[in-house]
Amino acid sequence: MDQSKLSIQQNIDTIQEKLLVLSHNIHSHPEIAFQEFKAVQWMTELLAEHNFQIEKNLGGIETAFKAVLPGKKTGPTVAFIAEYDALRNIGHGCGHNLIATAAVGAAISLSKEMKNLAGQLVLLGTPAEEWGGGKIRLLDKGVFDDIDFALMFHPASYNMIGRGGLAAGGLIVEFQGKSAHSAAPEEGINALQAVINTFNGIDSIRSEFREQMKVSGIITEGGSASNIIPDRAKAEFLLRARTIAHLNELLVKIKKVIQSSEITTGAKASIEEDFKYAERYPNLEMAEQFKKNMENLGEKMGYPDPHEILGSSDIGNVSLKLPIIHAYMKICNQSVKGHSKEFSLAAVSPRADEVVIKTAKALAMTGYDIFTNEILRKRIYQEFKEKVAVTA
User: Fold this and answer.
1) What DSSP designation does 116 have?
2) Where in the chain are the domains?
């Protein structure tokens, strides 16, 4: 193995204790979207100790940041991506404490080699992945404009590279009706009934959905008393589709259902669309380098089942702009599902601690490969140009 890669591993070993403290601290202090102040403080303090230049309030988002360390001369910019937001009511049931820690560890480790490398090393702190589209906001602000390659991983129940993702978008609909006593419902306009009709209407058109189109939803407001006709009701929906184009098609269908509910009940709807998460295009040239580096650390890596159920993430939007990897590393068995209390417990297990250290090493070594191998960089960009259909 290249002596520099051995040094990268040793660099991680020297800060292993601090990295595990960081992971456990973020886990024990879960912060939801755009509230991740403690996580940002802990990460940036550690990065600053290792001579990174820190820019906070990145893109006008208080909990977004950029840590930069230049090499000996100009060259490519390689970024490690950190996520650190928690889930509502579940804490770190998606293991973002591990994503953040691996990114920090990889950045610090590789920083020790930058005096001999051409280019710029970056760690991007991206908040609000679970809900709020932090990376999409940062894309819109131009934060990714000077990034050439982006690397991250995600904890899972399997070791895998090359897994894609679905496009997704949030939709909030609020119906305004007219209040009345339940003894005289004809005098009111039932906003809750409009919401119920919307759910029923969506169910009635599911047979029209393309493959991979999915809609789920909850009623977030439906009245205050059973003897009062609700004059206001609200629902929240999550839509998924294979691509952004298909997601837009699905949105049109759902809006027609909402309009039908307006006509049927007389309640007036207002619709709020959340950010649209794009489908994900993982770069296999980069992923294969990560796979090779991880297997040198004793972790066998696999490939996705083409029939498996896919999720969504705002890293998909980044993958439309530049080459990315989003590898998966096993921290639990397959009976434990993501976004659960059980997965949250797994995210601070001894296995999770082992994974975050190994992954930091593999990410750093993959970054080193990109910095030092021009032919690899060309292959990565050739794949990106051929594979990525820019539909956003």
Assistant:
1) G
2) 3-165+279-387, 167-277
Token couple for 272: 């709020």
Architecture of the CATH domain 3-165+279-387: 3-Layer(aba) Sandwich (3.40)
Q: Which fold has domain 167-277?
A: Alpha-Beta Plaits (3.30.70)
Per-residue model confidence as pLDDT tens digits over 193-215: 999 999 999 999 999 999 999 99
- Residue 201: CB partners within 8 Å, gap ≥ 6? 257, 260, 261
Element (H, E) at 70: strand 65-70
- For tokens 């978008």, the residue is 169
Q: Which residue, chain included where needed, has tokens 């580096």?
A: 293
The reported pTM is 0.91
Which of 102, 95, 140, 144 is closest to 124 using CA atoms? 144
For the residues 275-282, what does the mean pLDDT come to?
Answer: 94
| C-beta of residue 216 within 8 angstroms of C-beta of residue 199 | no
3-state SS class at 200: helix
Domains 3-165+279-387 and 167-277 share a fold: no
| pLDDT (0 to 100) of residue 390 | 54
Q: What is the pLDDT of residues 307-318, one digit of tens each?
A: 888 889 999 999
CA pseudo-torsion sign 367, 82, 98, 87: negative
Tell me how far apart the terminal alpha carbons of the chain are, to the nearest angstrom.
41
Closest CA to 321 of 94, 163, 147, 63: 147
- CA-based angle 79:83:86, to the nearest 5? 180
Q: Is 297 helix (H, G, I), strand (E, B) or coil?
A: coil
Residue 152: strand, helix, or coil: strand
Residue type present at position 12: I
Which two three-digit tokens encode residue 253? 């269908």
| One-letter identity of residue 281 | Y
